[in-house]
Write a sequence for this structure.
């Protein structure tokens, strides 16, 4: 993996850029509270044909936090600033969960910069008052009991029961991503997530092809939420990933990559 760092929008971003010269670009945005390494298997499966970029959102992995309050809007500005710095005019954009919130906000505000979207295990709704309250409780618990305990508890929600039993390596790597994240970044991002705006009312305006994928056993952003987005986005297809929970790209990478590659190739032929 070719790793680099660059200063954009007043912070240092760590990213990987595996280039096939002149090929279409695909940028991957990770979920919360993970980092760019969650996309390693997708990068490997695409890098012979595409320019594949993954990056750490500020405060995660090896990107620094900068000085501003975290918001989804700031994360979108970071993404577009990174594209500008890397001279990427247009790209495919694939986001999982929080990465999907960023992708949906990005297409709303910078529609001309994206060829197509891949929305994985995400949804378009804002937090309900109960969800906001739960986030505040999580912040309190992280401060009281620490990041390790938070990691152990959240892992049970992220993975499908079968994955918990079978995907030992993936669980260890996700746990490491969580415990590597600072308490400050976890709490600031939880706050940003609780304040995010809904994007459901904007889905009808998306005029690029969209692939929506969701783990059949996703408890956080369930298939019904994916179905709702599918109904609202004109040119969208929905794939339910078997044997997967919220981290469908890690729990069933074979199926995820297969759908991803087919989709990207179909858009590639028509538009690029
Ligand atoms: C994620 O995976 O990014 C989170 O589950 C998103 C969220 O907590 O809303």
């Amino acid at each position: 993996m070719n790793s680099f760092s660059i200063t954009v929008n007043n912070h240092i971003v760590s990213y990987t850029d595996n280039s096939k010269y002149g090929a279409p670009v695909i940028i991957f945005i990770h979920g919360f509270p993970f980092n760019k390494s969650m996309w390693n298997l997708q990068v490997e499966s695409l890098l012979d044909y595409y320019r594949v970029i993954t990056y750490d959102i500020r405060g995660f992995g090896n990107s620094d936090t900068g000085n501003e309050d975290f918001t989804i809007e700031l994360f979108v500005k970071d993404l577009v600033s990174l594209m500008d710095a890397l001279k990427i005019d247009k790209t495919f954009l694939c986001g999982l969960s929080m990465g999907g919130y960023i992708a949906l906000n990005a297409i709303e505000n910078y529609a001309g910069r994206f060829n197509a979207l891949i929305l994985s295990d995400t949804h378009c709704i804002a937090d309900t008052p109960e969800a906001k309250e739960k986030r505040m409780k999580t912040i309190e618990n992280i401060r009281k009991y620490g990041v390790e305990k938070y990691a152990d508890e959240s892992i049970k929600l992220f993975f499908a029961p079968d994955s918990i039993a079978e995907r030992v390596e993936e669980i260890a790597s996700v746990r490491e991503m969580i415990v590597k994240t600072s308490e400050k970044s976890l709490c600031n991002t939880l706050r940003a997530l609780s304040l995010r705006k809904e994007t459901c009312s904007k889905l009808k305006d998306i005029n690029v092809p969209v692939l929506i994928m969701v783990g059949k056993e996703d408890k956080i952003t369930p298939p019904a939420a994916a179905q709702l987005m599918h109904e609202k986005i004109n040119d969208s297809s929905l794939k339910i990933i078997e044997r997967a929970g919220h981290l469908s790209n890690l729990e069933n990478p074979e199926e995820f990559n297969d759908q991803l590659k087919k989709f990207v190739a179909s858009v590639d032929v028509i538009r690029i």
Remarks:
- The chain has eleven helices and eight strands.
